[in-house]
Amino acid sequence: MIRAALTLFLALATVSPLWSQSDLKKLSDSEITAFDSKLKSRSQATETLIADFRQEKSMEMLKNKMVSKGVFKYKREDKIAFLYSQPMVYHMIINGQKLRILSNGKNQIIDLKNNPVMREVRTLIAASFLGNLSQVGTTYKISYFDNKGGVVVVVVPQSRQLSSVITRITIYFKGSNAEIERLKIEEGSGSVTEYIFTNQRINTDLTDEDFRIN
Amino acid sequence: MRISGLISSILLVVSLAGCSPLLKEGIWLQNTPFAAGNVPYVYDTIPSTQIFDFTLVFKKSEVTGIVIIKTAGAGERRIVMTSVFGMTFLDFELKGENIKINYCIEQLNREKVILLLKKDFEILFKPDHSKITKYLYSSPDRLDALEQGNGITKTLMKFTNYNNKWPETIQIEHPYLRLSLLLKKTEYDPESI
Q1: CA–CA distance, A185 with A118 (Å, rounded to integer)
Q2: Where are the alpha helices (DSSP H) in A66-184?
Q3: Is A9 exposed, middle or buried (0-12, 13-18, 19+ CB in 10 A)?
Q4: What is the mean pLDDT of each run of 10 residues along chain A (214 residues)?
Q5: Which distant-in-sequence residues (6+ apart) come within 8 Å of B36 by Cβ?
Q6: What is the mean pLDDT of each run of 10 residues along chain B (193 residues)?
Q7: Domains along the sequence of chain A with CATH
Q8: A-B interface: how many C-beta pairs under 8 angstroms?
Q9: I want to staple A108 with a disulfide (CB 3.0 to 4.6 A). Which of A67, A70, A101, B141 is the partner?
Q10: Running DSSP on this structure, what letter comes out for residue A44?
Q11: Taking every pair of C-alpha atoms in chain A, what is the biggest distance, in angstroms?
Q12: Which domains does chain B have, with CATH numbers?
C-alpha cells in the first residue's frame, strides 16, 4: 500500500510540471485586447529601460544550470544591450541592423541580415517592449495565457529555418503593469535558456552612446 | 605555354615544400622518449565536466562562445558548443572512433567541418593519435606543442598556462585552411554545474 502510494506520488511528481504548464488558461479575445492595450500604454511610457538580468541555461548533460549575470539596456525602438559581467565580461549590443560583440577586449560587428536567429530575437524583444507583439506577423503563432494574474505569451516560430534553432519563446509579463519578468527560449537542441529581469528602471538617462556600434 | 605552366607548377610545389615547419624545435614521435607510448596527456581522462571559452577564427570571420566537455569514461566524451547568449551551435559525442551528432545548426552542418572538429578533439584527447606527429615538450610529462599531418590537413596545437597538470589555454591551428580554434578555461565553476 505504501509502495503503491509512493509510486503514485512519484508518477505525479514527474508528470506535474508538464501538467501544470498545459493547465494554463488561455486568454479570451477580450482579455487579449485588454492585455495588448496595457502593454501598449506601458511601452508608450517607456523610452528607455535598464534592468539586471540573470541568464540560466539548462542542458540535459548538466546537473545544474549554467548561470551568468549582467545588465540589460533597452532604448526604443531598436536598441538592445546585454552586458554580461559574470562569470566573464561579454557585451552584446544590437542597434538597428547591426550587432556588436565585445569579447576578450575584441570588437566584432555583425550585420543582422546575415544572422536570422539574432534578428528574430531582436524583433521579439523589441516587440515585447514596444507593445506590438500581436503585430509581429504570420511568421509566429502567438498564444496568450493567464498565469496567476500575470500573462504568459507563447511564441512559436513558423519558418522551418528558425524553428530548427528556436522551437518556442515564452515571455512572462507581470499582471499589474505588463512588465517583462522572464524570457524563456527553448531550442531545437533541447536546451532551454531563461533570462530573468529584475530591478527594472524606466526612463533613466540612457543615450545612443550606450548602444554605439562603431 | 606548356613549359611555363610546368615551371609554375614546380615553383608552387617547391615553394610549398620549402615552407619552414611550424614546429621548428619539435621532435618526431619516433625520435622521442614517447616512441614506446606514454605521450603525456593534455586533457584529463577522469569523468568530469570542463568548460572553456572558445574563439573560432576562419579567415577574417570570428565566432566566440563556450565549449562544454563532459568526459564519461576513457574515449567517451560529449562536446557542446554554445554562444554566450545561450544558443547551441553543435552537440556531439565521441566514442572510440565514432561520432554521434546530437544537434548541429544548419550553417555548420557540413561533413568536412564536423570531421575536422572531430579530428581536432581526438588529437586533444589522445595526443599520440597518429605516428606522424611532432612534439615539443619542456619536461617529460608536459607537452608544449604538437604538429600533425602535412599540407592542407596540417594541425598545430599549443598548450600553455598549465595548472595542476593540465593546460588552461589550448590553441588549435590549421594554417593552410586559415582556421583556428582557441580554447581558454572559463570562469564558470565546473563544480557548480
Answers
A1: 12
A2: 116-130, 160-163
A3: exposed
A4: 41 38 82 89 89 95 92 91 93 90 85 75 74 71 90 89 86 88 93 95 90 88
A5: none
A6: 40 40 79 83 91 87 89 89 90 93 87 91 89 88 91 92 94 92 84 66
A7: 24-204 (2.50.20.10)
A8: 76
A9: A101
A10: H
A11: 70
A12: 21-192 (2.50.20.10)
The shortest C-alpha distance from B188 to chain A (Å) reads 6
Phi, psi for A22 (deg, rounded to 5)? -75, -10
Residues in chain B: 193
Q: Does B191 touch chain A (CB under 8 A)?
A: no
Span between the terminal Cα atoms of chain A, in Å: 70
> Cα dihedral angle (A50, A52, A58, A61), rounded to 10 degrees?
120
Name beta bridge partners: A151: A146, A173
Say which DSSP state B21 is in.
Answer: P
Give whole-number Cα distances, A155 to A123, A129, A143, A183, in Å: 12, 15, 7, 11
Cell of A26: 488561455
Which of A127, A126, A97, A131 shows the shortest CA–CA distance to A114? A97
From chain B, the residues in CB contact with A101 under 8 A are: 64
Partners of residue A170 on adjacent β-strands: A154, A184
Dist. CA B30–CA B38, nearest whole Å: 13
Residue written as grid cell 493567464: A146
Residues of B in contact with A189 (CB under 8 A): 88, 91, 102-103
The backbone region for A205, taken as left when phi is positive above 0, alpha when psi lies in -120 to 50, beta otherwise, is: beta
